[in-house]
Structures are given as C-alpha cells and as structure tokens.
Design goal:
With 316 residues, the protein is of the alpha+beta class. The protein contains three helices and 13 strands; from the N terminus they run βββββββββββββααα. The chain is rod-shaped. The chain crosses the membrane at residues 186-210, 251-273.
C-alpha cells in the first residue's frame, strides 16, 4: 500500500457555532507520498532534487482522494489563482499543498455552558481507497498554526491525534483525526450576562428598604426586575440549540429568578401580615374605647337596683 503522510497548517479559526454545532477554519492541507513511477535523474533537472510542477500537471498525476469525514461544506481557494502547490522530488516523493476553507461538525456538550470546554474533531479519510491500497500517517509536526492565532470566544488549549479508521461494508478505509480542545472565554458572558443579572437581583432587594406603605414603588420594582430577568433568560437561550438537558446557565438564571420573585413575594406576605396587624390594633383600640361606657351602664344598673331595694325596705 501507498503511505500518505498528512499535516495541516491553520491560518484562522472562526464561526464556532453552538446553534448549528460546527466550526469553520482556514488551513493548508499538506500531503506527501512516494510514487516510484515519477523518479527522475537530478542531472536532468540541473542537479536539483526538487521540481515544481505547473498548473497543467495537477490533473495528470495521481493524488490521494482524501476528504473531511465530518464536513458540512468546504471549498478550495482559487483567487487570484488556484492556491495549490505541487513539488516532485527525484526519488518520486510528491509534496502537495492546498488551501481550504472548511466547516466541520462538532457535537458539543453544553452541560457546563458557558464554563465549558469543547472537543472538536477534524477527520481525514480516504473516499475510495481501502487500507489495502493506502495507509495514512502523520507528518512530523503535523498540526501547526499561525502565530498569534486568536478565536472570538474560545482559546485553543491543545490538540490530540488519533486513528479513526473504520470498517464499512465495502472494506476498511484509512482515517486520521485531530481533535481541538477549545476552552470558552468567560469575559463576554461576565459583561453581558452574569454582572447584569447580579445587579438585577440586588435591585430587587432595594424594595426591602422602602416603606411598606409605598405600595406602587415596591410593586413596580418587583415587577420590573422579574420581567427584566425573564428577558435576560430568554436572550441567553436564543444563542443555544434546544437541547433536552439542563445547562449551567439555566441553573444560574433560575436561581436569580427565584431571588427576584422571592423579593416580590416577600412584599405580598408582609403586606398581608401588616393589614392583619392593623385590623387587630383597631379592634383592641375599639374595645378600649367602649369598655368605660359599659362600666358606666353597669354601675347605673347597680345603683338603680340599690335604690329600688331601699324603697321597698322603707315601705315595709
């Protein structure tokens, strides 16, 4: 079998999407293999070991049929000229480089979102040649990247190399895989999510220091904070796919909403007990006002009964 060595040079990472669960990158795909039919004598090339082949030779030579197994879409760069390089060495070794922009699927686990780390694969597989004809191996230093490469919301922490060869009904096909370890940066979410929700919760607690008689002010603060927190929660969910499991951001938003709702509920409870206490106070004050009058009536009745008793005694 022909040994084909693979390697990549990453120009840029961009468009890492949680909604569509994919990522896009721009890279140089490097391939190297040896074809003994292409050996030549250095003397025929002015003693040079390397011969650069022109554009017309690309379609006349055999090249591996490598493709991205987890590809959603990909394209070669052709502006202003096809971005391909083909070098031939005297021993028949072919060095083939092409510039590609690819969008690849990345099944994401969002349980810890936005404090998550994603593991996104890039799989190179032969489309038509089985392992009886081709064997894939990595080049020395197979994964290189542009110096100062930055991602919008992630950091490229590390990568790992694996063999992903798989058996199909038509045979066993060679496959190599590089997995990118991407850690999400928390800065954006601190500014857009965590800090605003904390401030909303603190604002809802301001109602505790407002007089209980200021019902419009306390109700307004409670309702506004509840509605604002609901809007924040809805906005956070619109950036994510509709997964069935609970995410860390869901727990945070629910806890904040509970605190905000509890402050509104506290006002309702305090208002009920306050009105109950007012009614009891009024009843007790009413009783205190009516008790002297009742005592006067009782004394008058006693006095009348005593006078009647004396009158009857004198008549007898």
């Amino acid at each position: 079998p022909t040994i084909v060595q693979l390697g990549i040079y990453i120009n840029s990472f961009y468009a890492i999407s949680e909604q569509t669960m994919d990522f896009s990158l721009n890279l140089y795909l490097r391939q190297q293999w040896r074809d003994n039919r292409l050996q030549y004598d250095k003397k025929d090339n002015n003693g040079q070991d390397k011969l650069k082949l022109g554009d017309g030779m690309w379609d006349r030579l055999w090249t591996p049929d490598v493709f991205f197994r987890n590809e959603k879409k990909a394209a070669f760069h052709v502006v202003t000229t096809p971005n391909r390089l083909l070098n031939l060495h005297s021993n028949g070794t072919v060095w083939y480089v092409s510039k590609i922009t690819a969008t690849l699927s990345c099944p994401m686990r969002l349980h810890k979102y936005p404090l998550d780390t994603q593991d996104c694969p890039m799989m190179f597989e032969s489309f038509g040649y089985t392992m009886e004809h081709i064997i894939y191996k990595w080049l020395p230093s197979p994964v290189q990247r542009e110096k100062g490469l930055e991602l919008p919301q992630f950091r490229l922490v590390d990568h790992s190399l694996n063999d992903c060869s798989q058996n199909y009904t038509t045979g066993a096909y060679p496959c190599l895989e590089v997995r990118f370890i991407l850690k999400r940066d928390i800065g954006y979410y601190m500014i857009q999510l965590y800090v605003p929700t904390v401030l909303i919760v603190i604002l809802s607690w301001v109602a505790f220091w407002i007089s209980i008689d200021a019902i419009p002010a306390r109700v307004t603060i409670g309702l506004l904070t509840v509605l604002t927190m609901t809007t924040q929660s809805t906005g956070a969910r619109t950036q994510l796919p509709r997964v069935s499991y609970i995410k860390a951001i869901d727990v945070w938003m629910v806890v904040c909403l509970i605190f905000v709702f509890a402050s509104l509920l506290e006002f309702a409870v305090v208002n009920v007990f306050s009105r109950k206490e007012i009614r009891q106070t009024r009843r007790s004050s009413f009783r205190k006002r009516t008790m002297p009058r009742d005592e006067e009536i009782a004394l008058e009745q006693v006095s009348i009964s005593c006078d009647c008793h004396r009158l009857l005694t004198s008549q007898n």
